[in-house]
Design a protein that fits this description.
With 368 residues, the chain is α/β, with parallel strands linked by helices. Helices cover 35% and strands 17% of the residues. A seven-stranded mixed β-sheet has the order 3-4-5-6-9-10-14. A four-stranded antiparallel β-sheet has the order 2-1-12-11, with helices on one face. Strands 8-7-13 form a three-stranded antiparallel β-sheet, with no helix packed on it. Helix 1 (2-16) packs across helix 2 (26-46).
Length: 368
């Protein structure tokens, strides 16, 4: 035992650059034992650095997805078949540009914008083209200048404002993200609208955020408690290995709830916690969705992952299921009334989606 300790002490002294004798009292003996344990653990945990080759970087990424990505079955992806297609394209003399092209082309099949690759300042989101295109089909400036008579921005919240539609007794709320300090402020907003005949709630271009925030905002429009979805996190090697379901319900406060007609406006960039918000809102009988289909990306994302070449990535680790067991991942919320802007209509100073909402309220509810 003593001989073993002396060898280990020499190693520790060399590592720590200690060139004086260490007295063998009880305290130092314990310190030495702990140090041996820590250094041994470091070797066991860290091991040798993975080679920084195109092949190794590809293998690490593919295997990490294979073990942890949660939506292969939901999205109908044969991940092992994709390996057979893309692995032969990677050789160790492949350029960084070539490897980036192979990897992004492979993960594009997932059509999941919660799957993101980072190469320095370059960011690639899987399946994001239609989401990005929708930015040209929306203009906040047009909305506020042409359609909204007054507007009030809520300082404590990100991208939350409200006002009244010009010449109509209809409230308007814009919510661009599900993030902020005080979601209960929505109770105050609907109290401002208690004499209106309807509300148009605009979540086009909503970038997502916190699902709890979504639930609290939706509470201001709730007509009761409804089971709306469940969440499971992948926890095993099998593509269908998940932990127990966490079941979620709408929240309800009968003293603070707007139950007159509500139209929620959506587009392709309504995403993530914005879509979870819709799971709440569409459970209420007085709410309809109008606009374009949402992004179809619900899952919580992983912690940041790293490759030997310095690239980073994240991916989906959960599945969201409706009470009937179906998933909207890769599908999105289909609107009750489909209508979408075009870049040309925005340039012509016309928001086709908002105007259709006003027509609907006039035709269906007699609101002028």
């Amino acid at each position: 035992m003593k001989g073993f300790l002396q060898v280990q002490i020499k190693k520790i002294k060399k590592t720590l650059s200690i060139d004086y004798p260490i007295p063998m009292n009880r305290q130092n003996f314990c310190i030495i034992l702990i140090s041996i344990f820590l250094f041994s653990c470091e070797e066991a945990i860290l091991g040798e650095e993975a080679p920084n080759t195109p092949s190794q970087n590809f293998e690490i990424l593919w295997n990490d997805f294979d073990r942890h990505y949660s939506l292969f079955e939901v999205r109908g992806i044969n991940w092992k078949q994709l390996y057979q297609i893309y692995r032969p394209q990677v050789t160790d003399d492949l350029s960084n540009e070539g490897l980036w092209e192979v990897m992004t082309e492979m993960v594009e099949h997932l059509d999941d914008s919660h799957t993101t690759l980072y190469n320095g300042n370059i960011r690639y989101k899987s399946g994001y083209a239609l989401n990005e295109q929708s930015t040209a089909e929306f203009s906040a400036e047009l909305l506020l200048s042409k359609y909204i008579a007054t507007k009030t921005e809520v300082g404590s919240e990100d991208e939350l404002l409200f006002g009244q539609v010009k010449d109509k007794n209809i409230g308007y709320i814009y919510l661009g993200t599900m993030d902020g300090d005080n979601p209960s402020v929505m109770d105050e907003i609907i109290r401002n609208f208690e004499n209106t005949k309807a509300i148009i709630l605009d979540i086009r271009q909503n970038s997502g955020g916190d699902d709890r925030y979504s639930a609290r905002i939706a509470q201001a429009f709730s007509d009761g408690v409804h089971e709306i979805y469940s969440v499971q996190t992948r926890n095993g090697k099998g593509y269908n290995d998940f932990d127990e379901k966490n079941i979620y319900h709408t929240q309800f406060d009968g003293d603070n709830s707007y139950t007159k007609p509500v139209i929620v406006l959506t587009d392709r960039k309504t995403i993530s916690a914005g879509e979870v918000f819709l799971l709440h809102m569409k459970a209420f009988d007085h709410v309809i969705q109008m606009g374009d289909t949402t992004a179809g990306d619900f899952s919580t994302v992983s912690n940041m992952r790293f490759l030997p070449n310095g690239w980073k990535y994240v991916y989906s680790i959960q599945q969201f299921l409706l009470p009937n067991g179906e998933s909207l991942d890769g599908i999105g919320h289909e609107p009750d009334v489909f209508v979408k802007n075009t870049e040309a209509s925005i340039n012509a100073q016309t928001d086709l989606v908002l105007e259709e909402a006003l027509r609907y309220l006039s035709n269906e509810h007699g609101l002028e």
